[in-house]
Design goal:
five-stranded antiparallel beta sheet; four-stranded antiparallel beta sheet; 22% helix
């Protein structure tokens, strides 16, 4: 009994001593989770035997990692390795798509720059060829003296006899588009009679007298010597068009002068000058960028709008200067374009727009007309064709044309310094006739001629030079 009591007392003493040695710890583990640890010293073993060594430690590490993974999965954590991998893949795909888009944009920009470079190189080659052609071209021979017995000796013209022979002043010269045909006064062109009625007879123009009326709408009597206002500063100004609005509207007044350089394929800059003095000084007060590219030198101004042909098409555009927007556009029905029926100097002058006392006109040709000039009067608001006339003169046989009082006049040559206005077609009577009014190309490459009904002048662009001509009109005959 005493022995049993002794054992119980020893047990209680040892248990109390063990409780005194027990410890409880509370803290966060490596993953930040709260963890409680309770440890009690062994009442028997002084030290733990090394039962596992490094293998046990490795097993503990793997167990800890497994506990972490299980805790993430059970806690619904979507930011684990799979979520991170998915986000990384999404970000990489987005970056790849953006890189592909940037690459495509750069490739497109590269292609555009290459096309522009090719166009510039082509223009340079054309300019070089033209320069060489001008250098190698001989001076035109002098017009032979007409015997005194000729009734036309004062005009320096000899009418061909019997439909054969040519004038000695005709010059064989390839035109700008590579046509090797002769450039000559179309009044003396020998072609199908249906197109060349003006070869039949030269119309005598009476000397100026009291019958002239420069305020009416009679037949053109004479054109004065050109007056030079400005010379272009660079090669872009070899060809061009300059205009004044005959019926100007706000915000631009009647003295405003507009200019467009038409060399090259990117024609869209419209320069405005407050008056002729500012034009001569080269100080524009306004520069507009046209929303559609323009073709050649056939543009005109009327009632606050610029009318022009869109590049590489038969589309006509009305550009409102006040709002700087396109107000109307319309295809000119069946019109030839882009070198199909230009004037003899080329330059893609297939469609030539004009303004006179009667409104807005278009001078062009069609496949049906077989190259003959067609005249159409247009509605200035919506560009619809109101009425058309087909003439008997080929468009590529004349250098240029203009319209005065509903009458079309054509110029024979764009390079001959002394040429003629050789044909007139009256839309009022629907009849045409040949004529021979002297006309001077002072700088020997006239690429644009337009009539301004308010100024009663011809505006022209002659080989880098902006020029104008005073006119004399005959008295209008009563019907």
């Amino acid at each position: 009994m005493f022995l049993l009591l002794s054992l119980c007392m020893c047990s209680l003493l040892l248990q109390g001593e063990a409780q005194d040695r027990a410890a409880l710890w509370r803290g966060n583990n490596q993953n930040g989770r709260c963890q409680y640890t309770f440890s009690v010293a062994s009442p028997i073993e002084a030290s733990c035997a090394q039962t596992g060594g490094p293998e046990v430690e490795g097993l503990k590490a793997r167990l800890n990692l497994l506990e972490v993974l299980v805790s993430r999965l059970t806690g619904g954590d979507t930011g684990g390795p799979q979520g991170a991998r998915a986000r990384a893949q999404s970000e990489l795909q987005e970056a790849l798509n953006q890189a592909v888009q940037e690459r495509n944009l750069l490739q497109g920009e590269k292609a555009r720059l290459e096309r522009e470079l090719e166009g510039l190189q082509h223009r340079m080659e054309e300019m070089k060829r033209e320069t060489e052609k001008l250098r190698n071209r001989p001076c035109p021979p002098q017009t032979p003296i007409v015997p005194p017995s000729s009734p036309l000796q004062d005009r320096g013209l000899i009418k061909p006899a019997g439909g054969s022979g040519t004038l000695s002043h005709l010059i064989n010269r390839p035109n700008r588009q590579g046509d090797s045909s002769s450039v000559r006064d179309s009044a003396w062109e020998y072609g199908p009679p249906s197109f060349q009625e003006m070869k039949a007879e030269v119309t005598e123009v009476p000397a100026p007298d009291s019958s002239e009326d420069n305020t009416g709408c009679g037949v053109l009597v004479s054109v004065a010597e050109p007056i030079t206002h400005k010379k272009a500063d660079n090669i872009a100004g070899k060809y061009g068009v300059w205009m004044q609005d005959p019926e100007a509207v706000s915000p631009y007044g009647p003295n405003m002068v507009w200019r467009i350089d038409t060399v090259g394929s990117n024609i869209r800059q419209l320069f405005g000058y407050e008056d002729m003095e500012q034009l001569s000084k080269g100080f524009p007060s306004k520069v507009l960028l046209l929303p559609e590219l323009m073709e050649s030198t056939g543009a005109t101004l009327y009632r606050g709008s610029l009318y022009y042909q869109r590049r590489l098409s038969r589309t006509l555009i009305r550009y409102d200067l006040s709002s700087e927007t396109i107000a109307a556009r319309r295809d000119l029905p069946h019109a030839n374009f882009h070198g199909q029926a230009p004037y003899s100097w080329g330059g893609y002058t297939d469609i030539d727009l004009a303004v006179d006392e009667q409104g807005l006109w278009a001078v062009y040709s069609t496949n049906k007309a077989k190259g003959a000039i067609v005249i159409s009067q247009l509605d200035p608001h919506n560009l619809e064709v109101k009425k058309s006339w087909e003439t008997n003169i080929r468009k590529n046989s004349v250098a240029n044309s203009f319209i005065i009082c509903g009458k079309l006049y054509t110029v024979a040559s764009y390079t001959a310094p002394n040429t003629t206005i050789n044909y007139m077609y009256d839309t009022g009577s629907s009849r045409g006739k040949a004529m021979a009014i002297p006309f001077r190309n002072k700088y020997r490459y006239n690429s644009m001629i337009d009539y301004n009904p308010t100024q009663r002048k011809l505006f022209a662009w002659d080989n880098f030079h902006i020029v104008s001509y005073d006119l004399r009109l005959g008295r209008q005959q009563a019907n």
